Amino acid sequence: MTNETSFYDKLMKDFDNKLTHSGVNGNRMAERLDELSAIGFTDLGGVKRPGYSDEEKRAKTLVKKWMTEAGLTVTEDGAGNVTGRLDGQNNDAKPIASGSHLDSVLNGGHFDGPLGVLSTLEVVESWKETNYTPEKPFEMIIFSDEEGSRFNSGLTGSRAMTGTVSDAEQESLRDYNGETLEQVLEHYGSSLEAFNQAKRDVSELELFVEVHIEQGLKLEQADQPVGIVSGIAGPAWLEIEFTGKAGHAGNTPMIGRKDPLVAAGEFVHKVPEFPGQFSDTAVATVGKLDVSPNGINVIPEKVTLHVDVRDIQETTRNELLDRLVQEANAIAERHGVQVTSKQNTDVAPVPIPEKFQDMLAASLEKHDIAPIRIPSGAGHDAMILGRTIPVAMLFVRSKDGISHNPAEWSSLNDCVMGVHVLKDFIEQAMNQ
Ligand SMILES: [Zn+2]
Prior knowledge:
The chain is an alpha/beta fold. It is 36% helix and 21% strand.
């Protein structure tokens, strides 16, 4: 660590103390963000807390202590997910749940995950301070290994909880040291058997709500601290393969060539035209090209393009996929090359019920915040739970949209405003 201003001082520097009210305490939140930032702090000022690492475990141990002090009954399952329960006035009612994760990418920021965890905890603290007992039971959940930096396959904790990590995946996972899931779990203090016992009937929860940094620019552009997530986009990966005729770059005349890379280039150029034709939340990206044989003096034989297509509605996303395939076929025909296409990954988008978006809008308006609705392009634990139960999400403004980077930043004012909105939303849900 350097002698620069501490993380705590940076958080408190512009904090508006008037935001500390109704049992929500900005200073406590800054102290806790600061304590967590020190666990796995990197030379570059970021954080390294991969799933199932000692650092992630220490972070969870610390937060478990705070949870217990706040009055929650805390348990941890065999997949490392931590749950803290608070009884309500009517314990026959389904609990309302909220939380996020404490693991990070290998040199990540201090808000992605911890903000959602500490926002939930701060709501519980506020209830304790104001002697408020919610109508229904409440659960605070910390999911393990969300980011996927351990195994290159994320959302492990929430998927274990919903019983959706297949046996085949459990066998094939290898972490960055080449260790199997079983070995990693044993080092962590669990076992594969306990991991599988982490499965619970998630439908016993009424709803799950997650606060997360936006990781985008919409709130900053709109000058608003907090926004409503309108849906969580699921990626579909399209693999398009153009096959032509290889030849010597010097001896093959330009006329009559069947160059698949020229066709691929035209396709890449056309892709940005299409998403907006289907919805204003759709995106499509060519992120990877495989050129074969990939020699400087060889007309390629084959080019494979990998396209990531996302939207928060499955119908428009699938229409966009069809349109891209149609375009690839038309381009191939014009260039006299062959084309095949196949879809590899298909993660269904998760809608956020309109009712919850409206409730969040009401909470935002109470705090004079314009209710901006933003699609989430990235996956979150809420996406996994959203396959079984209704979910809601709130985004907190991210400076310059930066995340997965030590420069990740959300002002304490925005973070605390997020807590007030979360608290209001949960209390609305408790009373209906
Ligand atoms: Zn996250």
